[in-house]
Amino acid sequence: MSKNILVLTGSPRKGGNTDKLADAFIAGAKQAGHTTVKFTTAEKHIKGCIDCQTCFSRGSACSVPDDFANLAPLLEQADMVVFVTPMYWFSFPVQIKAAIDKLYSYLIAKRTLKIKKCALLVSGGVQDETMFEGIVKSYKLIAEFLSWKDRGVVIVPGLHDKDDILKTDGLKRAETLGKNI
């Protein structure tokens, strides 16, 4: 069954390892017949949640005007969300974290998203995969809290330069995950 998959990327580096990882996942998902939309959070201006609790009361998901207004309809159409991000200081970078934080608007407004599944593809400079435990745990807690089924985690460590991912099996693993959704 074809799914609408929203791919949220968190890297400010255009064409870098994270972009390549997202594109590989998207290629696999498209081969499997799914529809994908890539939303590059680093190219958007999404402010952090200020917990005003006026979500959806002023004509958009968030009362603070920013690019979350463009993301909200994509979230509402999605059956699945895939977070594709570099790891910054053992967690999500601010570019994607602000978008994740604003999922709160759906809880406050008691609006249900049709999203049922999620996945995480994460790259980072450290070689030791245990250093990714913080971001993976955060992701899994988000999935559990929102009752989303985790469809997989792809970790690609040891990436520093823009094309380092080409020296790994990370793109193949991302594409395989996309094909198997």
UniProtKB/TrEMBL annotation:
SUPFAM superfamilies: Flavoproteins (SSF52218)
Pfam families documented for this protein: FMN_red (PF03358)
Keyword Lipid biosynthesis: no
Listed GO MF terms: oxidoreductase activity
Keyword Hydrolase tagged: no
Highest taxon of source: Bacteria
Domain NADPH-dependent FMN reductase-like: 4-125
PANTHER family given in the database record: IRON-SULFUR FLAVOPROTEIN (PTHR43278:SF2), NAD(P)H-DEPENDENT FMN-CONTAINING OXIDOREDUCTASE YWQN-RELATED (PTHR43278)
Record protein name field: NADPH-dependent FMN reductase
Organism: Sporomusa malonica
